[in-house]
Specification:
The chain is an alpha/beta fold. 51% of the residues lie in helices and 8% in strands. It has 23 helices and eight strands. An eight-stranded parallel β-barrel has the order 1-2-3-4-5-6-7-8, surrounded by four helices. It is globular. The two termini are 41 Å apart.
Length: 498
């Protein structure tokens, strides 16, 4: 049945994360807000993902203050964030009390829609965050990470949708982080979930494969309620399909959004000028990359692999690594390739290829994965590889967070008087090595509003990172070379959100 379609606009989060290394500053966002707020979007995605640590690490901005400013500047539009389940906005599992404090603070500071996902589609890792979102009066958008593998079927995704609905989801998101969903698969999946789940459905994809806009149109025909788009000035490639194109495509149909196309075009012209300021951070990935279809590797993961191989002067091994990624993924039970599983799989695949022997060195995060500390993968893991990784150790079968004690008091004591609020303590609890120098700079009067000062602060953070990486490399030189490889490229990559 035909119905009005709505749009989640991603220009203030995923679009610049995908294309500009998450570097857009709040000073460039705020002038756009009055016009964005007047469009009537279902939501504006403005927070979460990699924006939290990047704001402190590279921009000298307080992510909580950014949220408060955006809330004030966007009084009429629901604000949305990407929440990595028990990982929150980080790359590891955090204790339940930290999850509680974080979600509560995010809601208090202006967040409305919480898109909650887990990298393995393990719903146990989503339940605490969803429960707290509901308790605090937020919109819990439970998420299915879409991927392709022998075990990922429409039936499996429908079963997950039913489970999420029973967990209290207010809506369901299909998160296609790699741009893999074809138009007809999008139609079939939306149709199948709609038949079993009486909730609004959002579809998120990236344009990497070239499927984006056509997949949205078929999903709309199948009954999808909301699609994620990016203003055309920051769309396509590894970003989302262009907002204006979808709005124009639906005009004068039963699905028409009713959005002002002229105003959207005006925003695009302004963003085109803003984008020039961030040219040095451009992803540099072609408009369509068919590698994503062959290897199921998201665009962000592709750029990370290139970065790692360049550091090791091994760019000639690029396609070998791409071929190794699906093999490692199979060994690990076909996890969807999204943060942090994409980093874990990608770094191990790189290690296997560069060393010329599979699993000669097994990275620590891979060992933790085989121990069950990231959750239950979609399919059984290879028992031989698992034994090689952890020996006869029995993997945990409980929810990983059940193995963690409370973390709030430790974080509060650790940051001490530098913290002036609950939000400061949370920043430290999530990213201690980033938040502490940030809060020290703030205590000296630096507030992130001066772009030159912010650039200096970012350079200092990067120097500290490089010094730590060098120390790790030197310390590892007495061990196997691959251990050095992991400590420098693997751990550093995890901390940067690759």
């Amino acid at each position: 049945m035909a119905h009005k379609v709505q749009i989640t606009e991603t220009i203030l989060r995923d679009a610049h994360q995908s294309l500009l290394a998450t570097r857009m500053r709040i000073e460039d966002m705020l002038p756009l807000c009055p016009d964005l707020d007047s469009i009537g979007f279902w939501s504006l995605e403005v927070w979460g993902g990699a924006t939290f640590d990047t704001a402190m690490r590279f921009l000298g901005e307080d992510p909580w203050e950014r949220l408060r400013k955006l809330r004030k500047a966007l009084p009429n539009t629901p604000l949305q964030m990407l929440l990595r389940g028990q990982n929150l906005v980080g790359y590891k599992h955090y204790p339940d009390d930290i999850v509680d404090y974080f979600v509560t603070a995010a809601k208090k500071n202006g967040m409305d829609v919480f898109r909650v996902f887990d990298a393995l589609n393990d719903t146990r890792n989503m339940e605490a965050a969803m429960r707290i979102v509901k308790r605090e009066g937020g919109h819990a958008q439970a998420t299915i990470c879409y991927t392709i593998s022998p075990v990922h079927t429409t039936e499996l995704f429908v079963e997950m949708g039913i489970k999420l609905a029973n967990m209290g989801a207010d809506s369901i998101a299909i998160k296609d982080m790699a741009g893999l969903i074809s138009p007809y698969d999008a139609y079939d999946l939306v149709k199948a979930i709609k038949a079993k789940v009486n909730l609004p459905i959002s579809l998120h994809t990236h344009y990497t494969s070239g499927f984006g806009s056509s997949a949205y149109l078929k999903a709309i025909e199948a009954g999808v309620d909301v699609v994620d788009c990016a203003n055309s000035a920051l769309s396509m490639s590894t970003s989302q399909p262009p907002t204006e194109t979808i709005v124009a495509s639906l005009a004068n149909t039963e699905y028409a959004t009713g959005y002002d196309l002229a105003k959207l075009a005006s925003i695009s012209r302004r963003v085109t000028e803003i984008r020039k300021k961030y040219a040095s951070f451009e992803a540099g990935i072609s408009a369509v990359d068919v590698n994503v279809l062959e290897y199921q590797v998201p665009g962000g993961m592709l750029s990370n692999l290139v970065s790692q191989l360049r550091q090791m002067n091994a760019m000639d091994r690029y396609y070998e690594v791409l071929n190794e990624v699906p093999r490692v993924r199979k060994d690990m039970g076909y996890p969807p390739l999204v943060t942090p599983s994409s980093q874990i799989v990608g770094t191990q695949a790189t290690t296997n290829v560069v060393l010329g022997e599979r699993y000669k060195i097994i990275n620590e995060e891979v060992k933790q994965y085989f121990r069950g500390y990231y959750g239950q993968p979609p399919a059984p893991m290879d028992p031989e590889i698992q034994k090689k990784a952890i020996g006869d150790e029995a993997p945990i079968t409980c929810r990983p967070a059940d193995m963690l004690g409370n973390g709030w008091e430790e974080a509060r004591k650790g940051i001490g008087d530098l913290a002036k609020s609950t939000e400061d303590i949370l920043s430290y609890a999530l990213f201690p090595q980033i938040a502490k120098p940030f809060l020290e700079h703030r205590a000296k009067g630096f507030d992130g509003t001066d772009e030159k000062v912010a650039a200096i602060a970012a350079a200092l953070f990067q120097q500290a990172d490089q010094k730590a990486a060098k120390q790790q490399f030197v310390a590892a030189e007495g061990a196997a070379p691959a251990q050095s490889l992991w400590k420098v490229s693997g751990r550093a990559g995890m901390e940067r959100g690759w």
